[in-house]
What we know:
By secondary structure, the chain is an alpha/beta fold. It has one domain (about 1-200). Helix content is about 50%, strand content about 10%. It is built from eight helices and five strands, in the order αββαααααββαβα. The protein has a five-stranded mixed beta sheet. β3 and β4 form a beta hairpin. The longest helix has 25 residues, at about 115-140. The protein starts with a helix and ends in a 7-residue tail after the last helix. The model has no long low-confidence stretch (mean pLDDT about 90).
Amino acid sequence: MLMQRILNYIYYIFLKNVSINLIRTEITKASIKDGWGDKEISSLPVYPFFKLYIDGKEEEASKGMTEYYFNIAIDKKAIYISKKDGGMKNGSTYQLIEDLHKKAGILLDEDLSNLNKEIAKEAIQNRVTNRFKMIDSLIKNGYSPSCQLIHATKSKDNDKYYLTDGHHRVLTMQILGYNTIPLAVNKPIIIKKIRRIFRMLHPKC
């Protein structure tokens, strides 16, 4: 705990507190195509499910978010499309689906022709549960940079900050009423060096 506090203190020296009104979602081919790129954080498709969960409607939130991701992954076939092309293949959810198939004695074919939808749904439910655990942690402990930094790039054309990761944390913090959020802007080298030094020392969150 002491090491985590020290690390947080050092981080805050180099992080930039940014008004949440200036933070925008990432600008990628996939995010623009899906309609939520380059917009305010509340434009994320999972916003209603996060809001439901934080408002105490956990069961409704879990069911809705699981159905949402299952529809995208399976019904709209995002699981068959490479992550670099805006799909989910080889992403974290895909890896979990692959692992659960292996545990069930199934080696997924390259074309996913032997994909088991029930196993896929179990993996998606697992991911949804982890998202909500993140929300629980933020509610209980607040935001800690030593757990996971939030990175962004600063636009040269305006005062906006575009997230490169940490979208779900920022969304949660917005719903919880945060006015400013500490960001690692343009991935400063000093942050990388600090993280490398303390990675093995501070507790996992």
